[in-house]
Protein 1
Amino acid sequence: MTVTTRSLAGDTETYDLIGVGFGPSNLALAIALEEAGSPLRVKFLEARPAFAWHPGMMIPGADMQISFLKDLVSQRNPQSRYTFINYLHEKGRMNAFINRKTFFPSRVEFNDYLKWAADQFDCCDYDRRVIAIEPDTSAGAVQNVEVTSCDADGREVRYRARNLVVAPGGRPAFPAVCKGLACTDRILHTHDYMRKLVPQLRPNARIAVVGGGQSAAEVFADLANRPQAPHVDLVMRADAMKPSDDSAFVNEIFAPEQTDAFHDLPEGARLSLLKDLAATNYAVVDEDLIDAIYTMLYEQAVTGEARLALRARTHVTGVSLRDEDVGLELQTRSGVETAYYDRVIFATGYTRDLDEHTLHGLMPFCATRTAGRDYRLVMKDGFDPAVFVQGFSETSHGLSDTLLSVLAQRSAEIAHSLCHLTDPEQAVAAE
Ligand SMILES: Cc1cc2nc3c(=O)[nH]c(=O)nc-3n(C[C@H](O)[C@H](O)[C@H](O)COP(=O)(O)OP(=O)(O)OC[C@H]3O[C@@H](n4cnc5c(N)ncnc54)[C@H](O)[C@@H]3O)c2cc1C
């Protein structure tokens, strides 16, 4: 989306803290600050017009991959009024939920829970995409930062803050072969699946889904069941769809207390542990979804229909546009061919980088690009504001960092540091 910026308005308050993004990470922080009795003046800036958790992947029937007990707060404070259980209670669905006998709510329900919690805070300005963060150098040493946001109509609003917490999530990642072509109406990312692909779906459309992980499988299964009966190829490099490992011993790595142990390891050991445990989260699929897809393909073999195909051991080596079609150059063990589709959707994950976008203006003041154990970036002398990051520390803090598992604890640690920075006595009282 190109936004032409127009007038510049200003919020005249200097906030103690500005949070970039109001997804689960900063929402958990809002809760932690409230529960610590923090007097900080806080403002969160959220690009979306209203609270929404991964709306582009709100696929009907998709379930959470994590227990509802790993909500915004329960692991830290099960007595909080922001627990998933209290949400069920307030919505009058406690017994019905119990009767379902599951730890895994649907994504639709978890989004509703998150929205219910977000609606209890008035410290977030929506429709405010942060487009720049600059140091305020007017007083010599940097004591504040200027945060510029932009609304959907291109109007800029500027804010000022003493401290920052940056939690914008990941950005859709496309393979290098898409360079210059990605994000057209024909070449999409699963991030936009429900918003862009589903509404445009024509009967008998030819669609390729590229990827071998959970999102690819969910989109493939959803398309397979759509009334427009599209022809769908699932194109993946791997030999087979592999199940995610959520067995009990392996799951222990997601416990909040594992963060210290992981952080204390030497870099080489951390990287090898991440590689070892990748099958909990990356390029893997829930076993029940694998079974459902296998059954779909089996039934298709019985009827002789040829609408759905799993193209394993297939690398996408080129992408091109031809008239109304998208050409995918596909390399398999038997050679290279080009297949043509109406739409191609990439389920190729998300990138998380701190420097290129949101924090660009502060990079000259960063001493390192990795956050410390307290999720705070180390800044150079003469730069006073504390800059915390959420969701950018997988290689230093462990696999949970981009997930929901550590939200309750991480937000409390950041809240504690913030209270300590601004009022050490109050922080001690909150402990
Ligand atoms: C489809 C999908 C399903 C998932 N399911 C699970 C699951 O079941 N269990 C699990 O543990 N994890 C899951 N995850 C991982 C996911 O990262 C976390 O669930 C969670 O969303 C992380 O929260 P966050 O607040 O850090 O990031 P996000 O949820 O991405 O929120 C970031 C927010 O920042 C906003 N933002 C971004 N840039 C700006 C900007 N410049 N200015 C203002 N606002 C901005 C975005 O609009 C967004 O609202 C899933 C991820 C996806 C994509």
Protein 2
Amino acid sequence: MPLITPPSPPSDDKRWKIVSGTMRRHGFARSALIETLHTVQSSFGYLDKGAVEYVAKSLHVPLSQAYGVVTFYHHFSLKPPGRHTMTLCLGTACFIKGASRLIDDVEGHLQLKVGQTSRDGGISLMTARCVGACGQAPVVLADSELLSEMTPERAVEQLERWTVE
Ligand code: FES
């Protein structure tokens, strides 16, 4: 059987490596559709046209089916994230060091769930599996800035700084 090369990702953004890693783990099987779309959502905060097309093509799923999934589940968003994004790492090291409490406090403070954006479009809340800074766990990305050994209090302070901008 000839080897089929998967399509190129929509950009050279490193987050596409995480997405293609999910597909590779599943052998680019169609059944990986939902999990892959989840990976895009949690990495980028939303799925644009290019993302849905890339995933559908890579997994050999009809585009209409991929859109069907995206529009069916409330978790998925076709709209871009807020002006700021807080990404909480949920990898093992961060989890052991209290990431779940961080999430509870941040969700409570913003009255939002992970994957959502505040109504004013100011802040989106995302999670990542591991951002490669396990020695500084628990970590949070405030936009692209890595904040190490994070506490719920410091996370809330960061959110408040964004709110008054
Ligand atoms: S588990 Fe959080 S940085 Fe690795």
Protein 3
Amino acid sequence: MTIHLPDNPARADVLEARPTLWVNPAYRSGAINDKALPVRPDQVDDAQANWARIAPLLQTCFPELEASGGAIRSELIELTALRDALGYAGAAFGKVFVKADSALPVAGSIKARGGVYEVFVFAEQLATQEGLLGKHDDIRTLAGSEAKALFSTYTIAVGSTGNLGLSVGIAARALGFKATVHMSADAKAWKVERLTKLGVEVVQHQADYTVAVENARLVAEGDPSIYFVDDEQSRQLFLGYSVAAYELAEQLQSLGLAVDAQHPLFLYLPCGIGGAPGGVTYGAKKVFGDNVHCFFVEPVQSPCALVHMMSGSDELVSVYDVGLTNRTEADGMAVARMSAFVATVMRNMLAGVFTVADNDLFKWLSLAHSTQDIRLEPSASAGFAGPDFLVNHHTGKHFCQQQGIGNLEGATHVVWTTGGSFVPQEQYESFLQQAARL
Ligand SMILES: Cc1ncc(COP(=O)(O)O)c(C=O)c1O
């Protein structure tokens, strides 16, 4: 199918794969309270309660969570030297932080918030249903041999560009489930290797992410012993991610940083299929209301959320439909078609989407390394363009005016860095070399 995108200041840039900012004309205040949406704000609280309940089990399964009591949390790091290196030294940029999901324990990426959550919540449900876990029983029972014997009769399956597969595979194997990960052709060899070593079956498709997910779904449909983590539709993944907003609120509060009309909060979230950035956006809208503005960021050749949301179409529009290639080094974001579920929820809630060139991803990855020792993979560095787009780009300036934001000196920008700490040294060095060649 060929789609003609509507007239918009960003249209030509999108079609010619130049970095640009698109602002969502349907963005409106209070959108989270729309009763027609397929999720409800109180489900974020339920998800937070679920995380708290499974924490002791997480702590038992993953020794690295000993100090946090089983919580999977990341640091909020203020940019100092990196801020200067990025050209954000001036007061006009307000405060700039990194939310370092790149170093999240257990899975080394933002996918820990979704994949680990869904697998552990499923394990709890299954054990309850099978009479292995009573209402007042210790959740750590699920790390015992009886539970493992039950879990070993089930397979957890997922389609992935890499990191979701890692998080689901790691979580599944820790509880004794079998696990199958259907990988797209973009998946990096080290991610495949790591999973294989854990005893995860990896099915590599010579096709893109959408095809990998479709295959995984098909296999799961015919087999009741397979639990399919459906990245295109899963509410559990989405809600697992959403709880990150409470964590961020706590961190901002402990730094004495207000979020209000004079101090708006901007989140820059790398987007693949949209689950992770959509979930965080949803949670942030619940927690911060109209004073948070969330922007997705995508590679210039894979802006699936941008083209779909810009099209205004009810049918999903893919990047191929507008003549783009979906080719990018940012494997986590190499997705041609966004989740329909996320598109529905984001319709009036997402402030906009900007795009970035692959070369810039490597440049920012290298700067993050040399200035503040932050270890990123290419997908994870995409958000660094955010403050520049909001402060300097004509569309960003217009957006601020429309929102009644005079200037951004009181603003807090949070660049969500979504993965990187698990990247093997050799691969990481090749990223740095690639940056040096630019
Ligand atoms: C590092 C990284 N960032 C961002 C994303 C995007 O998440 P989603 O596909 O849920 O939009 C991914 C997805 O795998 C990822 O691996």
Protein 4
Amino acid sequence: MSASVLLARRGCRVLLCERGQRLGRKLSASGNGQGNVTNVHMGAEHYFSDDTDKVDRALRRFSWKDTVLFLEEMGGIFLPDARGRVYPAGRQASAVTDLLRAEISRLGVEVRTDAQVTQLTYRNGFVAVCGGQKFSADRVILAAGGMAAPNFGTDGSAFALAENFGHTVLPCKPVLVQLRCDPASVRGLKGIRVDANVCVRRKGQTVFEGRGDLLFTESGVSGDAVFRASSYAVKGDMLIVDFLPDVCEERLKEALTRNTGADKLLCIVNNGLGRALLKQAKDEKDLLRLLKRFPLEVTGTLGFGYAQATRGGIPLKETDEDLQSLKQQGLFFAGEILNVDGECGGYNLQWAFTSAHLAAEGALS
Ligand SMILES: Cc1cc2nc3c(=O)[nH]c(=O)nc-3n(C[C@H](O)[C@H](O)[C@H](O)COP(=O)(O)OP(=O)(O)OC[C@H]3O[C@@H](n4cnc5c(N)ncnc54)[C@H](O)[C@@H]3O)c2cc1C
């Protein structure tokens, strides 16, 4: 959608094919419906890719400030929250989609919905087969997403279009997703939400540490801190949860000695959590451990159906600086279809905007 706006503004004739009934359905669902479009703490260190140096260069060419400018030029006000996450002031993701849709319409971009591109070939120009019709083009930007949230039209089937030109597709895994844990370890905790510090440990090493919301679910854990941890965690890793990151062990120990009985943890942790921990703890030392280092073994994730992003896809190394295919001149990539995924907090949409701008610039040259 962004690339088509940029190309149409520069006088190109653009055809935008969307498999679904409406443009930008995933964008409308982003950020819990509030549209976390980017983050002021931007940098390649927040991304995973086979070529993070290229991600770094791309983000320098089109930064989070450029995203805000691009959006505000179309309308609205975009503001960061205390953690740097940028949202539309009206906190409605669908309104961001509406801005883009309105601009697309104003610029006269030809939009086809219910239009899945099923074949893409090149012979003196590109030919795309879409709903039984053939369309020709000088340049193509493939921005068909990854495999996360297939209910929004992204089931990975578009990778075949790139494979047809000799591209590889790196194995995909869901990220920014709920983690599954041993059901016994979360029994009785379902529905409890806490502000916690979450640490991912593997073979005695910490591979991630972050603070935020943690929500216990039927099969594991969810919430902002867990989503961030899911970018790092793999099956077999341990999540170590500190339910009281602002309270040192000494102070906690002192409070536990002062208070007795079943009310021991009142006003220390959430009541439901307190009851469950008291039931589990063998003694006071063990209770302290559970409060500060609650262990959960990761047994998997809830899968692509529940994920916000995809790790894997078309290697970034198979593209040039403008994200043009190194296998087929005139073919560009943008967004999640590429092997770039960001942490939770606006990084994935920033990549979508950055890559769309690079691809559009490349397609224009
Ligand atoms: C619930 C949810 C919440 C999220 N929240 C945030 C957030 O707050 N901040 C953030 O930064 N990121 C968020 N993300 C991630 C972010 O939305 C995606 O990374 C981003 O939308 C990717 O943009 P894209 O243009 O590459 O692909 P998409 O937005 O996935 O769009 C790809 C489009 O291509 C269409 N398509 C697929 N195949 C074909 C085909 N063959 N022919 C025609 N059309 C096709 C699909 O129908 C789809 O509409 C969220 C994701 C989800 C699922």
